[in-house]
Design a protein that fits this description.
Structural class: alpha/beta
Strand order of the largest sheet: 2-1-3-4-5-11
Strand content: 5-15%
Protein name: LacI family DNA-binding transcriptional regulator
GO molecular function: DNA binding
Helix content: 40-55%
Keywords: DNA-binding, Transcription, Transcription regulation
Pfam family, one: LacI
Radius of gyration: 24 Å
Largest sheet: 6 strands, parallel
Shape: elongated
Amino acid sequence: MSEKRSSRITVKDIAKIVGVSATAVSMALNNRGALTDSRREEIKRVASELGYVPNAGARSLRGSHTCSFGVVINYFNNPFFHDFFMGLEDVTNKIDFSYWVSQTWDDLEQEQKQVRKLAQLGVDGLIVLPCSKEISHLTEMTSRFNIPLVLISHSLEQLFPAVVADNIVGARMATEHLLSLKGRPVLHIAGPVEAKSGIQERYQGYCQAMAAADPDFDAQRSVFYVERLRAEDGYEIMSEILKYYSLPLSLFVVNDETALGVLNYCHNNNLRVPEDISVVGFSDIDLLESLNISLSTVAIPRREMGQYAAHKLLSKIDFPHQNKPYLRDNEIITTLPVSLIIRDSSRIR
């Protein structure tokens, strides 16, 4: 066992401090055995103060590596992750690693809960799509429990290793393409800019392109915000946009799912795409080409993101495997290139 793994708080550590056997500690933490209430509470108090996390994997494997890691995403049905998990398995299948997946519903409390549950399962590392810039639970995993962690899609000031898309460049490309259509305002449907770095970068790329094209550009009049980045959010924001702007107009939308809601609104309200409203999304999730009106988008190499995330995490796990098919990655942040794909929704003939 490596030094890192052995530094986690164990039942024996608690037993030594309290002055009881490891068996007594185990009974107290599992509410079993003939212990006095005061002794049981003392053991639980010490365990809490030490930051003890019950490790199901370690119980079953007697402290060995579990050959697994946890992946925390926002939604199980998020189409972004189809190719991402293919990339993940391109790497893990070569060394017989498995993984657990949890969803947060884009909620911080759920994220904190799922991260700790995966730690209890004894995973050797974590890949996390963070839903905010709150990091105390992530710091706890790395500093207190020595569980390696890699972020995806969002970086947090280089505090953790991360694999991200080049969001600023992608947003600039999308905005410059829409500006080339001429004769229509180019607006941005943004997400929670203050909460997520990737969303903030797309906002920055949009603003950079707009400011370069128009010295009088005012973001306060041109940016509309949604919270959850789902299709229903894109649908609902359209009525607000059309209160302030007449047709035709162009929309750079923070992600594809929100953009699909925009297309659905246009369909239900007899608005022509791209003649009345031209739309560009971000991510290039599956099936965009097969829509009645295919969606222009900025493509993220999602399979490669899964591969890089797996490589980056495995390189930080002290795992004694003879054939290590993963790359040693010295970069804290790995930024993947993006590309603009022009389809029906912004191709004006």
